[in-house]
Specification:
Blueprint lengths: L8 H5 L5 H28 L4 H24 L20 H11 L1 H19 L2 H5 L4 H25 L1
Helix pairs in contact: 2-3, 2-4, 2-7, 4-5
Length: 162
């Protein structure tokens, strides 16, 4: 009898899933990446950037998302990366502050605040399991649903302009 710790990890990673399971997973990943490139489009159009700069930001988010996916899937050392096929992308939760910072202080300050918050998140990630106990699933699920419902009309309007 195999315990959780004695599962052959290579067998799990090399497993070939049937097409019926792969199609919904592929669609989920596609929709996640579409959402990821909408963040720089929304921020860029909100702070008045030209199309060339917005395209640069979209390229940057796709590159950084790709690197984050590789780190998540393959991992670094023993403690970094889940070694699961997660899609990593940008978050819509930061749109409001990013637009405010971008309008008031410009792109360099916006990029600096993103880097600083990223460092803080990495440091907090080592304690996230303890922090997560403060937020029950019903709270986080409700918050994410409200956030999606609130942002959907804005994202749809901007998407239709393109």
């Amino acid at each position: 009898m195999k315990t959780k710790s004695s599962i052959d990890v290579n067998a799990v990673f090399n497993e070939k899933l049937p097409l019926v399971k792969l199609l919904p997973l592929g669609l989920q990943h596609l929709l996640t990446m579409v959402g990821s490139f909408m963040v720089p489009v929304i921020v860029g159009s909100s702070i008045g950037l030209d199309a060339k700069t917005i395209a640069y930001l979209v390229s940057a988010i796709l590159l950084s998302s790709g690197l984050a996916i590789l780190i998540q899937v393959f991992g670094i050392g023993k403690g970094i990366g889940s070694r699961l096929p997660f899609v990593m992308g940008s978050s819509f939760i930061t749109l409001g502050p990013m637009i405010i910072i971008g309008k008031q202080y410009g792109l360099p300050t916006l990029f600096g605040s993103i880097i600083a918050s990223g460092i803080i998140i990495v440091l907090l990630s080592f304690f996230f399991d303890k922090i997560l106990l403060l937020f029950p699933k019903v709270v986080t699920g409700t918050f994410i649903t409200i956030m999606g419902i609130t942002l959907a009309p804005t994202a749809f309007k901007i998407f239709c302009r393109w």
